[in-house]
Amino acid sequence: MFNKILIPIDLNHAEKLEKAVSAGVYLARQDSLPVVFAAVASAAPGSVAHTPQEFRQKLDAFAAAQGVKYGINASGHAVFVHDPAIDLDTGLLTAVRETGADLVVMATHVPNLADHLWPSNGGRLASHADVSVFLVR
Q: Is the dihedral of CA 34, 108, 88, 44 positive or negative?
């Protein structure tokens, strides 16, 4: 049904994304699909890494650890944007295109009043991506 799963990851809050990771891994295991853990970041020094190369290394290490933990084929894919808070959706769409993923499994939050004014990242991705998007609460 699918060929590759993309799971967006925020390395600052990876522990809070366990439910989405578990759901993506479960789906990947059904057909032995590869999983790409994608992260959107700024190339500027930040709390996770000082350089894009260091960020990629940390993302690749995270993906490798998840691969071992769950027994899956996992890799990392970083997309660098000017401002991740503003360009997250664009960065995720770029990651989908660059990786060739045809399913995104993504954590989302419980809808609230602000979502009537500003849609969630997951909602925007689902509206604009040419692939299936599975949002996990």
A: negative
